[in-house]
TrEMBL record:
Organism name: Flavobacterium franklandianum
MF annotations from Gene Ontology: transferase activity
PANTHER family listed in its UniProt record: AMIDINOTRANSFERASE (PTHR43224:SF1)
Keywords on record: Transferase
Protein name, as recorded: Amidinotransferase
Amino acid sequence: MSQTTNSILMIRPVAFRMNEQTAVNNYYQKVLNGLSKETVNAKAQQEFDTFVTKLRMVGVHVIVVDDTLNPNTPDSIFPNNWISFHESGDVVLYPMFAENRREERREDILDILEDNGFIINEIMDYTSAEADGFYLEGTGSLLLDRENEKAYCALSPRADEELFIEFCEDFEYSPVIFEAFQTVNGERKLIYHTNVMMCIGDTFAVICADCIDDKKERKMVLDSLKGDEKEIILITEDQVNSFAGNMLEVKGADERRYLVMSQSAHQSLTKKQIAQLEEHVTILSSSLDTIEACGGGSARCMMAELFLPRE
């Protein structure tokens, strides 16, 4: 299986704002004082459009679907939490923590993908777990090393261990389970999504090992990555706060590999880290300041990778 794809799905926001339902355990969200909802959404749309243009300019195949005003889905810009697409032609639907995020799941998106020549064989639906209060938020919670058939998951209120193991059994991934923390007002709190503190590329991994407080767990995760011959590039908790963990490797024209991140993530990296990354990929960054502040997510969260077979 391939670790990277040339095709991604992105959802263009129509009513983007800070989602009060997700802010209870996403400590990266901020209230932007003095900005109307209309201004926040307009800024988010501008950031989104610039980002899509940059991706397309290097040859990434981006399918953009517009969000709808009804139902009210302020976080629709982050589709990777409710859906994932696999080389087998499987589509997975995930149970979501915030009630208003469950409304993001749209069947018409699957029709749009089929109209674009993608083949969907089966839909695996884990969403019934919501009724029992268990969640697993897509490739926010699951970090898939597709090539080595491993899945990494930092447990949190949005990543249930049993559900994660069920997913791994269904898709034949080996589970790598740990807890990751961030400091909030002097207290260590669970990080809400794994993809905030680590990113797995084809030949490298970016990770904030300092977020894994348990030394045994930290060693296990790093040993697992090293065992697959990934070059490990360590980032700090401050860099995680600038979304430096929230990156995604994609393929552009001529199979060229790009590591996609926000401008704030790029600016937080040291010269040494950038040099390490550039041994593997070309860095592509775009300003996502409004989206990061209000949404508490960044570049990686905005892209749902399309691994589906094509007609």
